[in-house]
Write a structure and sequence with these properties.
This protein is α+β, with helices and mostly antiparallel strands. It has a single domain, classed as Endonuclease/exonuclease/phosphatase (Deoxyribonuclease I, Chain A), CATH 3.60.10.10. It has 5 helices and 21 strands. It has helices spanning 66-82, 103-110, 194-218, 237-242, 261-266; strands at 2-3, 8-14, 25-42, 94-100, 121-124, 134-139, 144-152, 156-158, 161-163, 168-175, 178-186, 224-229, 245-246, 257-258, 272-274, 277-279, 282-287, 299-305, 326-327, 330-331, 341-348. The strands form 5 sheets. Strands 1, 2, 3, 4, 5, 6, 18 and 21 form an 8-stranded mixed β-sheet that branches. Strands 7-10-11-12-17-14-13 form a 7-stranded mixed β-sheet. Strands 8-9 form a two-stranded antiparallel ribbon. Helix 1 packs across helix 2.
């Protein structure tokens, strides 16, 4: 195995789908990793009077002290440092994150010893969410060069009044010299009931589809990775009917979406759990432009849920669930109530 400044170079024996079914061939490929992680309430300890962060203050109900904050930063940095390193020792080139309070917590995160050698840069905008939580994109500048970014507000209403939620984040740039787009999402929650709140998440799906449609009109075969905590499963109407994401590559038409996470969901494998039921709210969904394995650029190879044992609750009622920072209001010093998800991309060299 040889390494490069961008990612590892591996030799794969590729048979079905990349070369003909009657012949096998060894090829060298660059490997790249793209990830998403809900960091579960990564708040600092400073009171921001413009948002509802009172629980996460030293005097708040969670007794959110500087020591606990620093432990949370270390935990999150450690997890991110490990994602994708089985095939890409430089880790994730791009990481979408959600449930972060502000840019400061991201700066503390990427400066931690577990991550500082990767020199992650940040794309972040403040959202109008009342709790003050946002989405953001971290990227290694040696892998991805940002050319443009924008926050896309979700304009959703209940009884004629706007409901303020997290903006979507659209980032475009050059991924190892190749044009690529990322949309980071944290769609509206299921508060009030899944059915009653479903129209809000449908709006998130429609907004994402609109972005891809616009890009496809300008450049057919656009490479776009949609990622986030969708607060819906791969089979929910928002994803299946509005985003129109397909389970199988063969089902994806030009300008469509492929959802590799649906196969996990069908096997009962999730990224978050609630009341003895696993859900797969954390998803990475790829545009049709990333599916052709014969192309010269990057294409989709594999999807994974990063659910290592150290991220799981070891005992008790919630054994096997994601090991979170608080459980039942009690500080446990864990990681997040969500597992990260990631995909590998390959590029022939």
């Amino acid at each position: 195995m040889k390494t490069s400044s961008f990612s590892s170079i591996f030799t794969f024996l590729l048979i079905l789908g990349i070369v003909s079914s009657t012949a096998a061939q060894k090829k060298d490929y660059k490997v790249a990793c793209i990830a998403f992680y809900n960091l579960e309430n990564l708040f600092d300890t400073v009171n921001d009077t413009l948002i509802n962060d009172e629980q996460f203050l030293p005097e708040g109900s969670y007794a959110w002290t500087e020591d606990r904050y620093q432990e949370k930063i270390a935990n999150m940095a450690y997890v991110i440092s490990k994602i994708g390193t089985d095939l890409s020792p430089t880790g994730a080139s791009v990481v979408g994150v959600s449930e972060i309070e502000n840019r400061k917590v991201l700066e503390d995160l990427v400066a931690h010893d577990f991550l500082k050698e990767r020199n992650y840069k940040i794309v972040h905008y403040d959202s109008p969410d009342k709790r003050g939580i946002d989405v953001a994109l971290l990227y290694q500048p040696g892998h991805f060069k940002v050319t443009d970014s924008q926050a896309i507000p979700l304009m959703i209403y209940r009884n004629g009044r706007r409901i303020f939620t997290r903006d979507m984040l659209h980032v475009e740039g050059l991924f190892d010299g190749e044009p690529m787009h990322f949309i980071v999402n944290h769609w509206p929650s299921r508060r009030g009931g899944a059915a009653q709140s479903a129209p809000f998440r449908n709006e998130g799906a429609k907004a994402c589809k609109k972005v891809l449609d616009s890009l496809e009109n300008l450049n057919p075969g656009t490479k776009l990775i949609l990622m986030g905590d969708l607060n819906d499963d791969p089979v929910s109407p928002s994803v299946k009917s509005y985003l129109m994401a397909k389970k199988e590559v063969e089902e994806v038409s030009q300008g469509g979406f492929y959802n590799p996470m649906e196969s996990f969901y069908g096997k009962g494998i999730g990224s978050n759990a609630w009341r003895d039921t696993w859900s797969l709210f954390d998803q990475l969904i790829l545009s049709e432009g990333l599916l052709d394995k014969s192309q010269s650029g990057y294409f989709y190879y594999q999807a994974h849920i990063f659910n290592k044992n150290f991220l799981r609750q070891k005992s008790g009622q919630y054994k096997g669930y994601p090991f979170r920072t608080y459980s039942g209001g009690k500080y446990t010093g864990g990681y997040s109530d969500h597992f990260p998800v990631f995909v590998y991309l390959l590029k022939a060299i």
